[in-house]
Amino acid sequence: MARSTRELRQRRHARIRRRLSGTAERPRVAVSRTNKHISAQIIDDVAGRTLAAASSVEAGLKGTSGGNIDGAKAVAGLLAQRAKDSHITTVVFDRGGFDYHGRVAAFADALRAAGLEF
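RE: above sequence
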């Protein structure tokens, strides 16, 4: 039986999450993308809290599209700024089962360029 693209991504994500977890010292950056938008959260898995979040559907990013690399870079810049405001400098990157390619890779590169270490 053929598996759907969504199911395959969820299986990859579960496989990644088995060995990847965020702590207070080194929280997890979880990326999620759709065809039109991209969003991410910085999560402390031990406490079960979201420390910072950014999305292409926010009012501040209405002029940019989350469906392209420039939009992904804009959201990453906003998330990095919020992380700095929360005194977060080191994170673990969780690609969410998506290929490390295109918007996801551009998002990660923009986070690194903004000063987050992973």
